Amino acid sequence: MATVATVPSNNKDLALVLQGMLNNNWSQSQAPLAVCGFPINAKITLTAANIANGNYILISPALPNGTHVSSFRGTPSDMDTGGSPSLAYEVWAVTVVAGVVTADVLKLVASSTNAQAAAGSDTLLAAAQNRHIGNTYIALKITAGAATAAAGTYKWGGKFYLGTYKPGVQEQPFIGDAEA
Question: Does domain 3-162 correspond to CATH entry 1.10.287?
């Protein structure tokens, strides 16, 4: 793929949160019969240059092995301010090597035009629910550049867990509300 990944600077706080959970034994081996759930909330600031056609914008740090996605919601601001907006994107779990996206692993959100006018929220595809996305990053994949690009934000949240999802087994509850 060889597309250079963009990492907005405000991902550092999110990386520290994930590292803290790992340091506090939030691991797959901690509870083999239960789910260790954790919410994530983040707000990424994007420049007009970030949203050019073909760009990948990493919105998460590397997710630890064993991470599964349970829910996801993203809410963009208006980043295409022209009279005939064209901005479109998808949300993917991707692999990255040396700052370059090497593979689209799992599509989390179908093609969205919500950033054309801050019109709605992106939600997780049913086919992605409870799927493993460990050892990946979450990224916006710009599939059509903006007609009149403008800086903006992408707020996102979701519920993720480490371990194997087993319906009917006693689960540790998710703490807090992770919806963006």
Answer: no
